[in-house]
Write a structure and sequence with these properties.
It is a single chain. By secondary structure, the chain is of the alpha+beta class. The protein has helices at 15-19, 49-52, 77-82, 88-98, 141-150, 161-171, 191-209, 267-273, 304-307, 325-334, 343-349, 363-368, 374-382, 386-418; strands at residues 25-29, 35-39, 68-73, 102-108, 114-119, 155-159, 178-183, 223-231, 240-248, 254-262, 296-300, 318-322, 337-340. An eight-stranded mixed beta sheet has the order 5-4-6-7-11-12-3-13, with helices on both faces. The protein has a three-stranded antiparallel beta sheet with strand order 8-9-10, with no helix packed on it. β9 and β10 form a beta hairpin. α8 (267-273) packs across α13.
Length: 419
């Protein structure tokens, strides 16, 4: 029987829930909006399987360095632009499906929760494309993947490092037909907080505060048509949160509108980047440094302008770490465009590969003030102190002055060269 002494001890992978032979473990949501296992002791037979498959109780010790590191992108520019970074996941997934396989990933459900699901078609991959900054509900995905693997079909399973580690523990053996792909993970935000934010944002649009609307609308009239955490309309580096809603006009005709909010202005992303509502286990993640048992790691190649300035077209580039021979073989068949580089260059702008985020002092404050709206709590918890605002302003001024100084120095050099 799994007994949680601290919530930091559970990553929410659901391996214990899915492996229990008596189905006596269920997930229940806590006050922070995260799922944790609860045991019906009357059904438990003390078989110990739940503890045996827990990646937090049986943590890998050895750190792994990748066999190869690349900046990579999909050959299809349309897929690349529709993806969070360079579209490499889609290229890998398409190859798996061409070989008769199955692809698992995170997608939105009908009510815009984030869940894990699978597809057997190329058309079905669009649901998994793009980042979802919410912890996904795993459902029966480990059990489904195991059934496909035992049937001899190839499976690409993508997720966070803890989800991949949970899958590996759940399976209890290595399958040659499994390709495990994780992401460079900053931490997973609360599904409960996501629901709260989305409800408030829809209400804000409904009340006519979006100037695109022809008139104020009623909540029952509003439908969410699409969500993107990483819309590239303003570019890859200055991405936006995009929310597509629909309603009807006075004549009963359907009317759709899209709200795009830059990353630095969107309240949900601001709280996420301030680490206010990540899962408790994320602040001391034991699965950094390639410990998840993956074959590949995918992420954004931040800092591309310093490493490959000639490739920086602001359309997105994937940081690709190949961690196994199996991963290397699959990459050779996927046909993505590769630019070899060094691990240290990726790590420089992606410290989450090796380090967990620091527990913020205002996390407790965010959850304590439930009487306030989500928007008010975010503003309260992310507002800079007077001292910090002065420092930022001085830094901006100094940077501007220094920039002008450098421009003048360059001009002087050119003048000398031309004489």
């Amino acid at each position: 029987m799994t007994i949680l002494l601290h919530k930091q001890s559970c990553c929410g992978c659901s391996a214990c829930v899915q492996r229990c032979p008596k189905h006596c473990i269920s997930f229940q949501e806590d006050t922070e909006g995260f799922l944790y296992p609860h045991v019906d002791a009357s059904k438990c037979i003390d078989c110990g399987l739940c503890e045996r498959v827990c990646p937090m109780l049986h943590q890998p010790v050895a750190e792994r360095k990748p066999l190869a590191v690349y900046a990579a992108k999909n050959k299809n520019e349309g897929v690349r632009l529709a993806s969070s970074s360079g579209g490499v996941f889609t290229a890998l997934a398409e190859e798996i499906i061409r070989e008769g396989g199955v692809v698992f990933g995170a997608c939105f459900s009908a009510d815009w929760e984030v869940v894990h699901d699978y597809t057997e078609t190329v058309d079905g991959l669009a649901r998994f494309r793009g980042s979802k900054y919410v912890q996904s509900r795993m459902g029966d995905s480990y059990m489904q993947a195991e059934a496909f693997l035992k049937a001899g079909r190839k499976v690409l399973f993508s997720g966070t490092p803890c989800q991949i580690a949970g899958l590996k523990k759940f399976l209890c053996k290595d399958y040659a037909n499994l390709l495990a792909v994780d992401v460079i993970c900053h931490g997973v935000p609360s599904p409960g907080v996501w629901r709260e934010y989305l409800k408030e944002e829809i209400a804000r649009q409904r009340d006519g505060k979006n100037t695109v609307l022809p008139r104020p609308i009623h909540e029952k009239d509003v439908l969410v048509e699409g969500i993107s955490f990483r819309d590239k309309t303003l570019g890859w580096k200055k991405y936006s949160f995009a929310l597509v809603l629909s309603t009807t006009n006075g004549s009963g005709e359907k009317f759709s509108f899209c709200s795009r909010i830059p990353v630095n202005e969107n309240l949900f992303l601001r709280g996420f980047l301030a680490d206010l509502y990540l899962r408790p286990s994320c602040y001391a993640c034991p699965l950094k440094c390639g410990k998840s048992g993956n074959d590949m790691t995918l992420g954004d190649f931040w800092g591309l302008q310093d490493v490959f300035p000639e490739l920086d077209d602001d359309k997105g580039m994937t940081a690709l770490l190949v961690n196994s021979v199996r991963g290397k073989e699959m990459l050779g068949k996927a046909g993505v465009i590769l630019y070899p580089t060094d691990y240290e260059k990726v790590l420089r702008s992606n410290p989450a590969l090796e380090r967990s985020v620091t527990l913020p002092s205002k996390r407790l404050q965010f959850y304590a003030h439930r009487e306030l709206t989500f928007a008010d709590r975010i503003c309260k918890c992310t507002r800079l102190s007077i001292r910090s605002r002065i420092k930022r302003r001085l830094s901006q001024v100094a940077s501007r002055i220094l920039g002008e100084y450098r421009k003048e120095q360059v001009k002087k050099i050119f003048r000398k060269e031309l004489k």
